[in-house]
Amino acid sequence: MPRTLLTWKSEPMESTPTAGENIAVLRKARGIGQTKLARQMGITVSYLSKVETGIRPATPVVVAGAAKALHVTTARIYGQPFSDPSEQADLLNDLRGAVRRHTLPKEDTPPPEALAGGLKHAAQLRAETKYLELLRELPTLLGQATATALDADGDAVAWGQVSDLYGCAYAVAHRLAQPDLADMIVSRQQWAAQRTWNPAAEAAAAWNEAGTYQSAGQYDDGLAIVERAISQFERARSNGPESVIVLGSLHLRGVVLASRHRDKNATEIHLRHAKELAGQFPADQLMHNLTFGEGNTALYELAAHIELDQPNRAVQMATPLLDQPPTGLKPNRLGRFYIDLARARLATKDLEGSEEALKRAFQVSPQMAEIHPMSREVLRVLFVMHQRSRPDLMQMAKRTGLAA
Questions:
Q1: Which of 92, 172, 244, 279 has minimal CB crowding within 10 Å?
Q2: Is the pLDDT score of 13 beyond 50?
Q3: At what angle do helices 294-307 and 241-260 cross, to 10 degrees?
Q4: What's the rounded Cα separation, in Å, for the pair 299 and 240?
């Protein structure tokens, strides 16, 4: 497989620690035994030992429990997925500067057609999970869009463009494990969305706000954000595709948060509402950086089965989706589907099937597959469980920095 822009540049390459390894390091640094930590996390000592040694993956729920018990952030446990983060750091600093200067853009107002082209390209890069390419363009685009909105004297459409760009920026910060930057971006997106007078833009910002709680492992608080946003949007919304896509996407966020919170009832309620709305979109639609339709709803349902410890149901659901992938889904959603499938197959002890799903993720969405926490955790387990001699697996492990 060819290397992508997120592949490490230093040679020889040092392996980067995974979440499971970081839990062990932090536990030992604090002088906490496995028995005590396992009790605080609500899991067995055997399970914790397997997570630390790479026989079981550190799932989002496990990471959230460890972060709470060890008094650290989930980002600290996930760690930095780059062995040589120099280019990423420089580009992220440029984005931080642009976000900080949200009322003082350095850029001039561009021609309308140039800005429209830049916005379309940014949305495309996000959907294709080309994070570094997007990161290179975002600072200038944010400045240009903000300058346009400020010069437009309160034009709602112009502020909607700013809000959508901050949505792209959030995706980059979230995926590149920058939670503090993601928090700041969400506040800026809310600031821009409030100037659109468009409930859909504000709801899209709330979708990302709930995502910051999801990343932090604070699933109950994230659910509260989602449910408040749904209530507010239902009071204000009008009919039309935009309304359905935004409301359906909020319910999908609720599915993730509820399933990770192990609230089966809330999961089923959000999923039922999402399915009712998705019936209007057999082919998934993209709006405000939100993807919604029958296909994406099915992928969220599959992921919920995994979080609720029902991997067999997830694998069963995946079979027809593999034969005929949902129409309208971009690489960011298909890549996540294959990562989830790899996790489900691993849980059912189908090691070869798990590896095959990961290979598909690398083919469809290479940059996401290289740095996604669950992609790395599944790879780590496969690598530990006597799979070192498999060439494709070794190649993926090298690309993620898990092997030198």
A1: 279
A2: no
A3: 10
A4: 24
* Separation between Cα atoms, residue 64 and residue 73, nearest integer Å: 8
Neighbours of 49 (CB within 10 A): 14
- Count of alpha carbons within 13 angstroms of residue 347, beta-carbon side: 22
**Higher pLDDT among residues 185 and 81, named by residue:** 185
CA distance 379 to 402: 8
Q: What is the pTM of this model?
A: 0.91
Assess contact for 215 and 260: CB atoms under 8 A: no
The amino acid that residue 369 corresponds to is A
- Among the ranges given (57-71, 144-158, 231-245, 265-279), the one the predictor scored with the smallest mean pLDDT: 231-245
Report the pLDDT averaged over residues 42-68. Answer: 95
The yes-or-no verdict on residue 15 having pLDDT over 90 is no
Residue 82 φ then ψ, to 5°:
-115, 130
- Write a three-state SS string for the chain: CCCCCCCCCCCCCCCCCCHHHHHHHHHHHCCCCHHHHHHHHCCCHHHHHHHHHCCCCCCHHHHHHHHHHHCCCHHHHHCCCCCCCHHHHHHHHHHHHHHHCCCCCCCCCCCHHHHHHHHHHHHHHHHCCCHHHHHHHHHHHHHHHHHHHHHCCCCHHHHHHHHHHHHHHHHHHHHCCCHHHHHHHHHHHHHHHCCCCCHHHHHHHHHHHHHHHHHCCCHHHHHHHHHHHHHHHHHHCCCCHHHHHHHHHHHHHHHHHHHHCCCHHHHHHHHHHHHHHHCCCCCCEEECCEEECHHHHHHHHHHHHHHCCCHHHHHHHHHHHHHCCCCCCCHHHHHHHHHHHHHHHHHCCCHHHHHHHHHHHHHHCHHHHHHCHHHHHHHHHHHHCCCCCCHHHHHHHHHHCCCC
Q: Which two tokens stand for residue 57?
A: 């993956």
Q: Residue 387: what pLDDT? A: 57
